[in-house]
Amino acid sequence: MRELSPCEAAERSLIKTYRKRLWNPFIAAVKRYELVSPGDHIAVCVSGGKDSMVLAKLMQELLRHSDRPFRLSFLAMDPGYNPENRRRLEENAALLGVPLTIFSSGIFDVTAQVEKNPCYLCARMRRGALYAQAQALGCNKIALGHHFSDVVETTLLGLFYGAQLQAMMPKLHSKNFPGMELIRPLYCVHEEDITAWKNYNHLRFLQCACRFTENRDSSGDGVGDSKRQEIKLLLRELRRGNPNIEKSIFQAIHGVQLDTFPGFKHGGRAYSFLDHYDSGAPSVDNAGQE
Questions:
Q1: What's the pTM?
Q2: What is the mean pLDDT of residues 255-281?
Q3: What is the distance between the alpha carbons of residues 48 and 86, in angstroms, rounded to a whole number?
Q4: d(C-alpha 261, C-alpha 8), whole Å
Q5: Helices (H) and strands (E) in the chain, counts
């Protein structure tokens, strides 16, 4: 039997060895949240990390097997990588058969000067640059590599450090780029399964490679100033007592009981339970009792 190329082996493992852990939850998210429609032109945004690379390969497989025609472009931004990281991005894309369009920006230089919330600013700037490039290519959607674990961690970050119950949506309409949408096809895919696929295929991908994560990685506790990494470690500890803790959080954001909240926001407007308290409707407490 002919030996498979690294690209062929990686593709085969997605729909064979890791079918239940990667392909099936990927398809489940695409269908459940209606992420891909006939006629779409989707810019798959590739940072060079494991998440965006597995997203690129899964989207290629979806295109091959779909009976609903759509188009893909693969877009990568160099926000200021050092030459070694830029080279790894290009080599991995070539190895895995991902035809990248790469553009450069100086975002790392800008965010390196910011002391407060540099990751938030970096993410916002990168997303805006990706939207603009995707729109210039004629795309109507961008696909990002946020996964199940990101969704759960973001929910806890908002609760613990943002004083709000806020989740990460599977798709969004862009506020600043009319006609553009953001989709997250890895919404139901666990990070540990992406890591397992990476290791199975002996692949090495980029980390964030910015000043902030370098500080984190050099810290003695592996956390540094990263609140997200702190949440990862907390969830790892909680899983020891409850293996389904992340699944419970994920299901909770799909079944929010607004009747039990004293306040909530919708469309940027704040609402209080007092707005309708005297309407005559029965009140329900968190135990389901009047």
A1: 0.89
A2: 89
A3: 9
A4: 51
A5: 12, 8
Strands, sheet with 41-45, edge to edge from the N-terminal-most edge strand:
100-104, 71-78, 41-45, 141-143, 181-183, 171-173
What is the β-pairing status of strands 263-266 and 269-272?
antiparallel
Candidates 192, 165, 256, 157; CA nearest to 25 is: 192
Spatial distance between the Cα atoms of 246 and 237, rounded to a whole number of angstroms: 12
**Going by C-beta distance under 8 Å and a sequence separation of 6 or more, which residues neighbour residue 155?**
165, 166, 167, 168, 249, 253
Q: Where are the alpha helices (DSSP H) in 16-48?
A: 24-32
- What residue spans of 1-144 are helical by DSSP H? 6-15, 24-32, 50-65, 83-95, 107-111, 118-136
Dihedral (CA of 174, 177, 178, 183) sign: negative
Tell me the pLDDT of the chain averaged across its residues.
Answer: 89
DSSP label of 258: G
Paired tokens of 202: 């002996």
The percentage of the chain sitting over the pLDDT mark of 70, rounded to a whole number, equals: 88
Identify which of 126, 98, 110, 119 has the alpha carbon closest to the alpha carbon of residue 229.
119
